[in-house]
Amino acid sequence: MKFSTIILVALRQINEFVAHNGVAPIPNPSAPLPAGQDGLKLSNDPAHPFITPGPDDLRGSCPALNTLANNGYLPRNGVGRPDQIVTAVMEGLNLGNDFAKFLVYQAFLMNSNPLTNLMSIGMKTPLTGQDPPKPALVGGLSQHGTFEGDTSMSRVDAFFGDPAAFNQTRFNDFLSFATKYGANGTYDINATAELRFERPQDSIMTNPQLVFTSPRILSAYSEAVFPLVYFVDGRLNNRQLTQDAGSSFFANQRVPADFHRPPAPVSFEIIEPMVNQIFTKHPFTPGVNHGRNNYVLQPKTPALSDFCRIYGDIVLRVVPGQYPKPTCQLKDALNKNLGFFYDTVKFQHNCTQAFPYDKY
Ligand code: HEM
Ligand SMILES: *[C@@H]1O[C@H](CO)[C@@H](O)[C@H](O)[C@H]1NC(C)=O
Ligand SMILES: *[C@@H]1O[C@H](CO)[C@@H](O)[C@H](O)[C@H]1NC(C)=O
Ligand SMILES: *[C@@H]1O[C@H](CO)[C@@H](O)[C@H](O)[C@H]1NC(C)=O
Ligand SMILES: *[C@@H]1O[C@H](CO)[C@@H](O)[C@H](O)[C@H]1NC(C)=O
User: Fold this and answer.
1) How far, in Å, is the centroid of ligand 1 from the Cα of 259?
2) Between residues 109 and 20, which one has the greater pLDDT?
3) How far is Cα 75 from Cα 283, in angstroms, rounded to an integer?
4) Alpha carbon distance 253, 76 (integer Å)
5) Residue 351: inside a domain, yes or no?
6) pLDDT tens digits, residue range 311-346?
7) CB 162 within 8 A of CB 156
8) Looking at the domain assignment, is residue 180 inside a domain?
9) Is residue 297 included in any domain, yes or no?
10) Domain range spanning residue 126?
11) Is the pLDDT confidence value at 14 over 70?
């Protein structure tokens, strides 16, 4: 066995031990990549070979995490701890540390088992250990209505089928928008702006149960720009995703041959202006469908631009929806993760900390 394989097998055994034994210690989040090791780098290196996932390996709604599991940056069974996922997205795709933690702790608060500190990147699984009491879901990233939501680019809305499974018909639209609007047929900022606007327009007409409110609106708009930042080879780094590279990540869930990650860590300060740019081109108001083509605006849900209120909505509405009155170790674990999550929104956005339980 290669050394990296041994490490991953060992990590997987730790996860399995924890899942059987109920309660895990919660380590601090991973630190940023050390200076000098956070630059341009071959991601598809010999230590990270693509292996087709086996029948028991979990994959889900995020093309990036699926790919990182298939290339061994994440445990190949698709179950991991937050620090493993933060490290994987930093190493494989050069996410900035604060941005990686923002995504991961957000997902953990909605989709993980806080007691075992494990989360599935796909559907619900016993591999995350014994569940805390309902209404906790511990549904994994594929759990609809948490992080996963409607109007995805390469998945169908939950009303139509499995919202976590890659759908070629949907992805063909992604490619045709690149052909129609992108520079030289790439998925660029203009193609992104048009596709991101078309997706809810389509769902408004076809999905009687469309939900397009906080927090989904933020992930929908961020994920739209991720591919042209993180899936573009870092040697070019021109915000133009070729259809070949896009297909490798989305359809094959495989890091393209010779792919290099971005030349420097990418965080909020690059993602947010791009999100603003596509929003400004085609603004929308959050809402839900009451039947097909009956889009009802939701004035109480925060707007896309209201970052701190979306943070508050996750922490004060979504999390207590699953954990109304946690006690003991469960409350401690949630408070720890809430603290890690808040740390990622504190400086750049100056949000006020929200406490769903008592102050800690
Ligand atoms: C770091 C932790 C991450 C977590 C927890 C996460 C989680 C998710 C989830 C739950 C979805 C499903 C949302 C939906 O469409 O309903 C999603 C979609 C997506 N993610 Fe990730 N993600 C992470 C990192 C990344 C990174 C680094 C990229 C880089 C390209 C990425 C790219 C995408 C894209 C493009 C989609 C949209 C797929 C679509 O609309 O069809 N994600 N992610
Ligand atoms: C993919 O999406 C299309 C269009 O929304 C749908 O007709 C088709 O049944 C989906 N395919 C699968 C395998 O779900
Ligand atoms: C399209 O590709 C050509 C040839 O590689 C290049 O010269 C041109 O600058 C590209 N156009 C854009 C808008 O990127
Ligand atoms: C996007 O489209 C605008 C016109 O709507 C054009 O001026 C601009 O150059 C395009 N941007 C790119 C990156 O192709
Ligand atoms: C952050 O918020 C605090 C309290 O609302 C305020 O006093 C401070 O000036 C803000 N700082 C920045 C950089 O916006």
Assistant:
1) 19
2) 109
3) 39
4) 13
5) no
6) 999 999 999 999 999 999 999 999 999 999 999 999
7) yes
8) yes
9) yes
10) 3-343
11) no
* 327 belongs to a structural domain: yes
> Which residue, 234, 197, 355, 207, is CA-closest to 294?
207
Using CB distances shorter than 6 Å, the residues near ligand 1 are: 61-65, 85, 89, 93, 95, 100, 103-104, 107, 141, 147-149, 152-155, 219, 223, 226-227, 230-231
Q: Provide the CATH number for the domain around residue 206.
A: 1.10.489.10
Write the residue with the smallest CA distance to atom 20 of ligand 1: 62
pLDDT digits (tens, 9 = 90+) for 169-186: 999 999 999 999 999 999
pTM score, whole prediction:
0.94
The label of the residue with tokens 């993980």 reads 112
Q: Distance between alpha carbon 90 and the CA centroid of its chain, in Å?
A: 13
